[in-house]
Specification:
Elements (H helix, E strand, L loop, with lengths): L1 E2 L10 H15 L4 H10 L5 H25 L5 H22 L4 H27 L9 H4 L4 H18 L4 H10 L4 H23 L5 E2 H23 L7 H21 L2
Parallel strand pairs: 1-2
Helix pairs in contact: 1-3, 1-10, 2-3, 3-7, 3-9, 3-10, 4-7, 4-9, 5-8, 5-11, 7-8, 7-9, 8-9
């Protein structure tokens, strides 16, 4: 169900927020729901269930534009994207069903716990990589870890998080791809493809049972589309090899902080 909420003065900040999220989302491998959902819930007092589906619809254009941009720049691994997407779609539909059975406060708590857990996973993965010799794990032997078991471990939760929490499920996808030790640019581009597929199927399921605030969607999308076009272009000119570990640590720390904020705001 689609509805339009009355425009308030504070809504005019949403295009700016959308631009920042669209830019950094496509730069770092996310769709933006990781930021959109808590902003809508904590600062715009949007009911959690409405914020979930609204966040999904607002992140879809970011994911689609980002996926196209990264594909053109050669930042994608289509084989891994297909594997994660097939599993993620199943999880996304299951997540939508689960979300309808949980209260708004329950969803906020689950989202907070999810952020804390995935932040820890990324930090732990980064620490393990530090113990490897330079160049170790970049060959075919390491790539064998991208088997179906590994995809299930990260892809299914990613889809469920997308459907249940409206956050695109970026963190488990990034964690899974990072654990395979592929170059960061390919991690980013591949993750965005998977995020887009999961989001699309979750939106389809929510249309049957959710309420979408199109006023919020349009305000966020106004800025996010511009940011989503710029993100892949900027990444293609960046030298990220030396900064990969720092970026991963920052991303993990941001997830932990957001998790604490969501849980403590009950």
């Amino acid at each position: 169900m689609i509805f339009y909420s009355p425009i308030e003065s504070v809504y005019y900040l949403l295009p700016v927020i959308g631009f920042v999220v669209g830019f950094f989302g496509t730069l770092l491998g996310g769709g933006g729901g990781f930021v959109f959902l808590p902003i809508l819930v904590l600062f715009y007092n949007t009911p959690t269930h409405t914020a979930v589906i609204t966040s999904l619809v607002a992140t879809l254009p970011i994911g689609l534009l980002g996926a196209v941009g990264h594909y053109k720049k050669g930042h994608t691994d289509l084989q891994l994207a297909r594997l994660f997407s097939w599993v993620g779609v199943i999880g996304a539909i299951a997540g939508v069903v689960i979300a309808q059975k949980i209260s708004g406060k329950g969803l906020k708590t689950v989202f907070g716990i999810y952020c804390l857990f995935m932040g820890g996973v990324i930090w732990n993965s980064n620490r393990r990589d530090k113990k490897q010799e330079p160049g170790e794990g970049r060959g075919a032997g390491k790539r064998e870890r991208g088997n179906f078991k590994n995809v299930l471990m990260y892809g299914l939760p990613a889809g469920m998080v997308t459907g249940a929490l409206g956050t695109s499920g970026t963190a488990p996808i990034l964690a899974g791809l990072m654990s395979m030790n592929i170059p960061l640019k390919k991690v980013v581009g591949t993750a965005i493809i998977v995020v887009s597929v999961n989001t699309l199927f979750a939106i389809g399921a929510y249309f049957l049972m959710g309420r979408i605030d199109m006023t919020l969607v349009l305000m966020l999308t106004t800025g996010s589309l511009i940011g989503a076009v710029l993100g892949p272009r900027v990444l293609s000119h960046m030298e990220v090899q030396r900064s990969e570990k720092k970026i991963k640590y920052i991303y993990g720390a941001a997830m932990v902080v957001l998790g604490i904020v969501m849980i403590s705001s009950q």
